[in-house]
Amino acid sequence: MSVELSECLERLEAAIDAGAEEDLREQWRNFSFGGFRGRIFSPRRRKRAEKGGFEWPRISVNAAFDDMDLMIIRELTGCWEAVTSGSGAAMCVRTNYGTGILPSLFGARQFRMDDAADTLPASLPLDGGADAVRRAVSAGVPDVERALGGRCLEMGIRMKELFSKFPNISRCVSIYHPDLQGPMDAADLLLGSELFLMLFDDPAFIHELLGVVTQTYSLMMRRWESAVGVPEKDFSTHWGMMMRGRIMLRDDSAMNLSPEMFDEFIKPYDAELLKEFGGGAVHFCGRGDHYLSSLSGVDGVYAINMSQPEYNDMETVFSNTVDKGIALIGLNREAAGRAVASGRDLHGFVHCVDYGGDK
User: Fold this and answer.
1) Are 291 and 262 in contact (CB under 8 A)?
2) Rounded-to-integer distance, Cα 13 and Cα 17, Å
3) Which one of 44, 137, 312, 321 is CB 3.0 to 4.6 Å from 326, fit for a cystine?
4) Rounded to two decimals, what is the model's pTM?
5) Which pLDDT tens digit goes with each residue over 104-122?
6) Is the dihedral of CA 65, 69, 75, 78 positive or negative?
7) 125 touches 194 (CB < 8 A)
8) Is 78 helix (H, G, I), strand (E, B) or coil?
9) 47: buried, middle or exposed (CB in 10 Å: 19+, 13-18, 0-12)?
10) Is the per-residue pLDDT at 356 higher than 70?
């Protein structure tokens, strides 16, 4: 462990008030299981830690990608900011290797942005196009301990071992599962834009691909939970938020598909993973109101996280989430405020971020 990482861990350990963190966790749990009775859930810590003149190091994405100690420092930045601002963000870290973790298991190459962009890497479609993907699928479920899968597991184990030496960090900082996207998103990354033609030209193969990807996702999650642990069977942390269930799926690719295609190519594979891992949340960027009535009927969908409410008919969103007891977490405060001002009943199922500080 580097001297820099050691100091960061010691500073964070001293700043954490375990009682305040437990109180915050209970606020989140109450909200996640339907016990909140206010209009908008925006929790805050009951006290704010002092920085004591310490400036947390700034670490770039690319530097963190190549150095485990730097990865841990970068990931703990949000925890330091949470306790010193008094915000309601849950303290959590992940093995943050971008959206290409699962595609890398099938041989997809990474693409990194310049340092100035400070943005997570993406992955390139498999060299050789659809033929290469067919060969990968024929080979079956890949070794999840290769490529970025192996790096995630190694990083997760290292985080767990290091944190165990610091009682407050070990108790209060969650290590949440890597970004494995969702089955369709991973298929999209493997095939690139060719996917959208193959949905029509060769749907049987797309189902075969999605089946192998889903099995790989499941195996990677089970290996992760075995190696790093499951703090609670029915409750987890993701992106500074807490939620009922253990898995966060991404359905970004669904914005490009019709409701009928969602039902055929996304819903059954999402449902399989949600069932296996005790339910959870689904994230999407862009528009999702056209398939939410279907997604909201899947067992285990306990929360939705959407990035851009301005691209959606929010009444459709609300009627297929909060009206059905499904939480909206991380909702844009302006969108939530408009709903409240209009008299829309949100049933205590909308969370908006409170960044803390003097706001």
Assistant:
1) yes
2) 9
3) 321
4) 0.95
5) 999 999 999 999 999 999 9
6) negative
7) yes
8) helix
9) exposed
10) no
d(CA 44, CA 349): 17
User: What is the Cα–Cα distance from 73 to 17, expressed in whole angstroms?
Assistant: 20
Q: Which residues contact 210 (CB under 8 A, 6 or more apart)?
A: 183, 184, 187, 265, 269
DSSP state of 202: -
Q: Cα 121 to chain center, whole Å?
A: 16
Q: What is the pLDDT of residues 8-57, one digit of tens each?
A: 999 999 999 999 999 999 999 999 999 999 999 999 999 999 999 999 99
Mean pLDDT for the chain? Answer: 96
Q: Please choose, from the candidates 70, 71, 89, the residue with its C-alpha nearest in 3D space to the C-alpha of residue 79.
A: 89
The structure tokens listed for 331 are 């909702």
List Cα–Cα distances, 3 to 8, 70, 95, 166, 330, in angstroms. 9, 11, 21, 16, 35
Residue 108 CA to residue 124 CA, distance in Å, equals 6
Strands annotated E in 202-345? 235-238, 241-244, 247-250, 280-284, 301-306, 327-328
pLDDT at 354: 79
For residue range 215-274, what is the model confidence (pLDDT) as tens digits?
999 999 999 999 999 878 899 999 999 999 999 999 999 999 999 999 999 999 999 999
Quote the CA–CA distance of 334 and 54 in Å, as a whole number.
Answer: 34
Both structure tokens of 111: 């693409």
Angle between helices 183-191 and 129-138 (to 10 degrees): 130
Contact 101, 149 (CB under 8 A): yes
pLDDT value at 152 more than 70 = yes
Per-residue buried b or exposed e for 229-258, using 16+ beta carbons within 10 Å of the residue's own CB? eeeeeebbbbbbbbbbbbbbbbbbbbbebe
How many C-alpha atoms does 83 have within 13 Å on its Cβ side?
27
Residue whose C-alpha is closest to residue 169's, from 346, 20, 15, 26: 15
Q: What percent of the chain has pLDDT over 70?
A: 99
Closest CA to 56 of 78, 87, 88, 71: 78
CA proximity to 120, closest of 62, 178, 188: 62
- DSSP letter at 351? B
